[in-house]
Design brief:
- This protein is mainly alpha-helical and 429 residues long.
- It has 3 domains: 2-87, Fumarase/aspartase (N-terminal domain) (Fumarase C, Chain B, domain 1, Orthogonal Bundle), CATH 1.10.275.10; 94-254 and 266-343, Fumarase C, Chain A, domain 2 (Up-down Bundle); 351-411, Fumarase/aspartase (C-terminal domain) (Ribonucleotide Reductase Protein R1, domain 1).
- It has helices spanning 2-5, 8-13, 16-36, 42-51, 56-66, 69-81, 94-130, 150-175, 192-201, 217-243, 272-293, 304-332, 338-346, 354-363, 368-385, 389-394, 397-402, 405-410, 415-418, 421-428; strands spanning 135-140, 143-149, 177-178, 205-206, 251-252, 335-336.
- 66% of the residues lie in helices and 5% in strands.
- Strand 1 (135-140) and strand 2 form a beta hairpin.
Amino acid sequence: MIERYTRPEMAKIWEPGNRFRIWLDIEILAMEAMARKGWVPADALARVRKNAKFDIPRIDEIEKRVKHDVIAFLTSVAEHIGEDSRFLHVGMTSSDVLDTSLAVQMRQALTLLIREARKVFEVLKQRAFEHKDTVMIGRTHGIHAEPVTFGLKMALWADEMRRNIARLRRSREVISVGKLSGAVGTFATIDPLVEEHVCRKLSLRPAPVSTQIVQRDRHAEVFATLAVVGSSLEKFATEIRHLQRTEVLEAEEHFSAGQKGSSSMPHKRNPVLSENLCGLARLLRGYAVTAFENVALWHERDISHSSAERVIAPDATIVLDFALARFRGMIETLVVYPERMKKNIARTHGLLFSQRVMLALAARGLTRERAYEIVQKSAMEAWRKEKDLAGLLWKDPEVRSRLRREEFRELFDMKHYLRNIDAIFDRVF
């Protein structure tokens, strides 16, 4: 999946080259902090900066023998810098490098996700204003309720995406924490000043307290956020799937020239993009579950989380990046059918006005219960016999005794339901 669908910018974050570059940055920044304190010769730092490099095939070769990724990396670097390698990784443990590097990579990935989420928001905002006055039936329990507009639906989604952008930003802040505190987090063999220097240079904060690792509640929060964003996309996609059903067909995914919907039925135009997004959301929730499982580790550290994170960190960020881009493209090209929306509104023969009539009767002295009974009786007849609700209600003597003809007609004005749409848009945008 990664090779076929990954967008290059996100994929590069998780490539070995980027990871090893960050590792090298951490090692050199730590050495830089020590040199400033006179604990490492300044000329050695200059030579290391000039000569330090790594060779990925060589790292892989060494790791096959030593069975340790950080040692393999350091050995490869040492082959380029010679004796000065004794000044690298002084007082540090592997997780000082691994966890600080993961924080940098997650920060990079979240920055891309925030950028893509903002694009999604802008597309939803554009479609919201485009269809602000495009009237359609609102549905509760899948059944016709009262009118809304398609633009209002888009505004609702845009508002949710704005919350998701805020969640992603908070997650970036939560994960932007590094640690260089040694084997069990006590700074027994390294000074806190080194940690502070390295983290500052990498746009991270030092973990206030750590064990051998940064605590995994932070990571769980991030993956939970990715799952929430994915679930929002699933919610939006599910609505599009419903609207594209043959008997509804109020909106439809763009069907390109030459596209085919079925190997057996040439007429098919399926909501495949929306269905794909729903499946990806399930993956994201699964990654979140794994992240929660990683929170509880033995004592100051075990590595049960490590193997899982090597899968879920690139996969979750790549999947959400792809899903956001796919959803954005789908909304940009979504086909909307206002005339079909009008036809669907008309199918219930005015039932959508039932609440207005009930409230008007109650305002004229009837109890709410009696007003409900009167309207429901005519509504059920309209439903069964496909007759106009207004005509049935006006035949009711109790309705005619309470309401004048003109005010009764005004209760069936569609504009009443849309009079606050502009105010809602002002609140959202």
